[in-house]
Amino acid sequence: MAEEGNARKGDMGSDELKQCIMDIQGWFSRHGGDVDARATTADFQRLSKGVDAPIPDSLELMLGEANGGFWFMDKKGMSVEGIVEAAVACEGSGKWRSGLVPFAGDEGGMLVIDTKTNEVMEWDEDDGVGDSVAKSFEDYLETFRNTIMAGKCEFDNDIGVIEGVSGGSRK
């Protein structure tokens, strides 16, 4: 099967990542999401002190544009404060490990970045680290952006992004 367009070779550059985040932010703005909050320098200082892992640049970039305003399907994106609270709460669970940075969900079930491998992983209270969702946070964001921009998703403020619908919005 022939591919259309110019397929990128390698990882996303910083300009492509910024555009990807802006596309996600624009989609949520058009569909009733609250994406106006932005993380500040003080927020990033709290984040680096509150999480036992290096903070990926791509996560900082996203939080600088939308501090907790995105939903990743049924997982609500966390603000800097939410990331720190979730990481601290999970550290005592026995299932948590150093190097994980949560970015969506709650203590019961989250999406985390494993900073040792750069993979996006599922994590839950019962099993700990689960399946790999993407080989990197950048890939995760790009795939998510492509999914929502395809016009087959809705957004509901209570349950998140719903795939496989006409593309409308429930507020």
Model description:
- The chain is globular and about 40 Å long.
- The model is unreliable at 167-171 (pLDDT under 50).
- A hairpin with a 3-residue loop joins strand 7 and strand 8 (160-163).
- The chain has one domain (16-25, 34-163): SMI1/KNR4-like.
- It has helices at residues 14-30, 41-50, 57-65, 80-91, 137-149; strands at 71-72, 75-76, 100-106, 109-114, 119-124, 128-134, 153-156, 160-163.
- The protein starts with 13 loop residues before the first helix and ends in an 8-residue tail after the last strand.
- It has five helices and eight strands; from the N terminus they run αααββαββββαββ.
- The strands form three sheets. It has a four-stranded antiparallel beta sheet. Strands 1-2 form a two-stranded antiparallel sheet. A two-stranded antiparallel ribbon has the order 7-8.
- By secondary structure, the protein is an alpha+beta fold.
- It is 36% helix and 22% strand.
Please estimate the helix content: 25-40%
- How many strands, which pairing sense, and closed or not: the largest β-sheet? 4 strands, antiparallel
- Please name the fourth-level CATH homologous superfamily: SMI1/KNR4-like
Counted by DSSP, the helix tally is 5
Low-confidence stretches: 167-171
Termini separation comes to: 39 Å
The rounded Rg comes to 16 Å
* CATH-derived topology: SMI1/KNR4-like
Work out the number of β strands: 8
Outline, from the CA principal axes?
Answer: globular
